[in-house]
Amino acid sequence: MGKKHLIDFVDISKSYHHNLVLDEFNLYIRENEFVTLLGPSGCGKTTTLRLLGGFEKPDKGQILFDGADITNVPANERKLNTVFQKYSLFPHMSIAENIAFGLKIAKKSDAYIKDKISYALKLVNLDGYENRSVDSLSGGQQQRIAIARAIVNEPKVLLLDEPLGALDLKLRQSMQYELMRLKDELGITFVYVTHDQEEALTMSDTIVVMNQGYIQQIGTPEGIYNEPENAFVADFIGHSNIIDGIMLHDELVEILGVPMPCVDKGFGINKPVDVVIRPEDVELVAPGSGKLHGTVISNLFKGVHYELEVRAAGYEWLVHTTKYYEVGQEVDLDVIPFNIQIMHKPESSDEKAVEIDE
Amino acid sequence: MVKKTLSRIYIFLIFLFLYAPILVLAVLSFNRSDSRVSWGGFTLSRYVACFESESIMSAFATTLEITFCSAVIATIIGTLAAMGISSMKKRGQAIYLGATNIPLLNADIVTGISMMLLFVRFTNLGFVTVLIAHITFNIPYVILNVLPKLKQANRSTYEAALDLGASPVRAFFTVTWPEIRSGVFSGFLMAVTMSLDDFSITYFTKGAGVNTLSTMLYAQLRKGIKPELYALSTILFLTVLLLLIATNINGDKKVDNRLIRRVISAVIMLALFTGSVFVLVQQHRISGGGDRTITVLNYGKYIDGELLDRFERETGITVKYEEYEEPEEMYTKYKAGAISYDLICTSDYIIEKLIEEDELLPIDDSQLTNYENIDPALIEMSTFDPSHQYTIPYFYGTLGILYNTKDYSEDQVKSWDLIWDKQVSGHLIMTNSVRDAFSPALIACGYSINDTDPAHLKEAQMVLSRQKPMVSAYYVDETANEMIAENASLAVCYSGEAALAMDENEHLKYIVPDEGSNLWIDSWFVPKSCRNYQDALTFLDFLCDNEVALQNFEYVYYASPILYVQTHMDIDDRLNSAINPENRVTRNCEVYRALDNDTSAYLNTLWQELKSQ
């Protein structure tokens, strides 16, 4: 994507009561991009969003918007709008009054406001709800009103702070599609905060995986999923087998005492590494024909596949398979070289963050 | 079925215990008779009198002003504080909330005393100190009402408003305010209720002359209950009740009748507001003052107000006149340095104490042209001022026996012996004041009423305990009313009470027994804090003028030390020993000397023993 940067975080640090939440944080967001900040609670993603919204000030660093420094611009003067986690509709106002709130402050004409309200309600599929009270709406409807209230102001950026967190699965999925549709229709930039990796993978153009105030990896959903750069990302994005290994030399790694061919190079000789193997990449073969011998110790039916736990060489492997195996059955495991992902062990302090789990 | 009946009876009993006292009060406020035990027919005159009484109305106005101002200011401060607390971290919240709640739990009297001590350090006690005190104790109530609303409101709506472009001020008023409004209003009503209701803190922080309804009620009750106070108390109770109902309606979301709520709030605000304006206007009228001003402190209702006007007219000196009710209260505040007056009138034993503590300036009698008008006998009797240079006697009275002529003849009551006699059993009211009860007992044993010998006091106690089975009641303030209603036929009491009772019931007479008794003298003195000595003396001289003294006597109705008054008063009064004791009487009487701490403690112990026998 060759588009220009709309937002730049430059060397941002922020702490609460001696608790460092963001440390030397750098990130850019391009125009018309759907960026998701993904990470466990306490990773600094909400703080990043609040800094951008203007509800917090960084201890150090700058935030640039369209090239201009907005670090000290108060929230009400920033050209962006937020959809809050708890909807935050004004309970004493009607739906129309809620949506009109920003427009009235901007001193738009009554006719303009009226048009905008009905346009926004159509956009979020809540036509004719103008005079309803906030209390009479369901959670999903309230969230859509919150979105409508934000977008009528035609912000350049829409910030969304876990907006679907309080909704049930079905509603969440349909709202995900609506959000993607809105993004395409409005052509504005979305900065989306969530801890739900599926949500992030579904909607984003770019995912920023964060932990303990550090960015762990930035990439497309596919890139993040298929090529996690470290154990934290691998573990956070779907379940993985993460095993200690030794890189014997280029293209050969020893896992649990068994040398296995792989495709990675340049890690040196006899170097300790982390090895990631996705559960769907583990192949179950007849005993005697694989690299590792093991026993099935549990079997869960998941609809599309079975989720097995197989004990082999002292490690409990997570395996996804479409074939049925009985508990106690003996099997061999095999992995093709391409599906073995080799990662550096963490060394510096920011890399340490990858080890500590949520 | 039985269970249900029993539980109903139980609830009924609870309510009976809770509300019976107030019910009695309310019923008495409609009683035509002054007695507390007999019903004399229905009347609204107590209520009328209540509204006609200048002291009640002025206390009422002060109350409204303090209540309104303190509630408004406390509401503003409390709301802001609640907003600050709600945006803190949990631990900070707990600490601050705890700190603001301590004054709620603290004993009022402790709060009151500590505030007095603090205020006295910086300023004189007065209206402003009461106001500050009320604001202080009202704030926690406001916080407690507003905080839950703020928590409900959730901060993110405020942020949402900012996000949509509203300035912080606009965001507060359009978004936060509507959500906390009901909490703020109930906080305000709560503050009004508390402020209206408070006695202890007001009592300690008020200056002389500032009275709210509660402190005035207290002071009046000490002097003797006047039935219009029942009416006032009933009104006060109903007001607080209404306010509480209003608070609850306001807090109750189900009562959605906004009109009713608005009307209630409007009425309350209007009442408070008019009250405040009324007082402000009044105060404005009173103050003014020029260079020649004297500040005078006197017991309540102890001068004819017209005389003050006349003095100001004749001399051009402005009198800032203030009143107090309790000599101990005056003494404490005086010693704390909270009062600076040019002239004070108080009781004999307090003056004796103040002279010992060297708090007074000598009065130069050569400057008093009317000094000769004073009965030399009274000056002679002012033993509390041995050098006779610090005081000018103002009014005096005696301790004696009030009796009903239908039951007793003058000959029978000529001696204290009667009150120790079995024949009075069941219709004797004994005074409930320690020293006054011991005085006749000491006399009966042949000692002085100022005797401090523990053995003599013990002997007097024996006399009193032999008398106890015959006493129908120990009273002070209630004596007059009970005698008027003829619930008793003999009472040991002060001449002032006696004179009041005699006015109401022609069969009552008062006598000071031949053996002598206590004589009290209230006198004027000039405190060291005096700033206008010359004009203070002019005022004293004015009070000693024959015609002035006569007019003043007719208002105050106690025995006057001015000889001209004694000879020129109305013939009935002249014959009334309660207000014009004969020389024979005063000669035999003694003035109380201040007791040392040990004796007064011992006396109290003896009295407690007697009462618990």
From TrEMBL, chain A:
Function per UniProt: Part of the ABC transporter complex PotABCD involved in spermidine/putrescine import. Responsible for energy coupling to the transport system.
Source organism per UniProt: Agathobacter ruminis
Protein's UniProt name: Spermidine/putrescine import ATP-binding protein PotA
UniProt EC number: 7.6.2.11
Gene from which the chain derives: potA
The reaction(s) this protein catalyses: ATP + H2O + polyamine-[polyamine-binding protein]Side 1 = ADP + phosphate + polyamineSide 2 + [polyamine-binding protein]Side 1
PROSITE patterns for this protein: ABC_TRANSPORTER_1 (PS00211), ABC_TRANSPORTER_2 (PS50893)
Domain ABC transporter, first and last residues per copy: 7-237
UniProt keywords, alphabetically: ATP-binding, Cell membrane, Membrane, Nucleotide-binding, Translocase, Transport
GO cellular component: ATP-binding cassette (ABC) transporter complex
Alphabetized Gene3D superfamilies for the sequence: 2.40.50.100, P-loop containing nucleotide triphosphate hydrolases
Recorded superkingdom: Bacteria
Family (UniProt): Belongs to the ABC transporter superfamily. Spermidine/putrescine importer (TC 3.A.1.11.1) family.
TrEMBL record, chain B:
Disulfide bond is among the record's keywords: no
Statement: the UniProt record of this protein carries the keyword Protein biosynthesis: no
Membrane topology, record value: Multi-pass membrane protein
Entry's localization field: Cell membrane
Database matches in CDD domains: PBP2_PotD_PotF_like_2, TM_PBP2
One of the GO biological process terms: polyamine transport
Domain (ABC transmembrane type-1) ranges: 60-247
GO-annotated molecular function: polyamine binding
TM spans (from-to): 9-30, 56-82, 94-119, 125-147, 229-247, 259-281
GO cellular component labels: periplasmic space; plasma membrane
InterPro entries, alphabetized: Bact_Polyamine_Transport (IPR051789), MetI-like (IPR000515), MetI-like_sf (IPR035906), SBP (IPR006059), Sperm_putr-bd (IPR001188)
Keywords: Cell membrane, Membrane, Transmembrane, Transmembrane helix, Transport
Pfam families: BPD_transp_1 (PF00528), SBP_bac_8 (PF13416)
Family the entry assigns: Belongs to the binding-protein-dependent transport system permease family. CysTW subfamily.
Name of this protein: Spermidine/putrescine ABC transporter permease/substrate-binding protein PotCD
Organism of this sequence: Agathobacter ruminis
Species classification: Bacteria, Bacillati, Bacillota, Clostridia, Lachnospirales
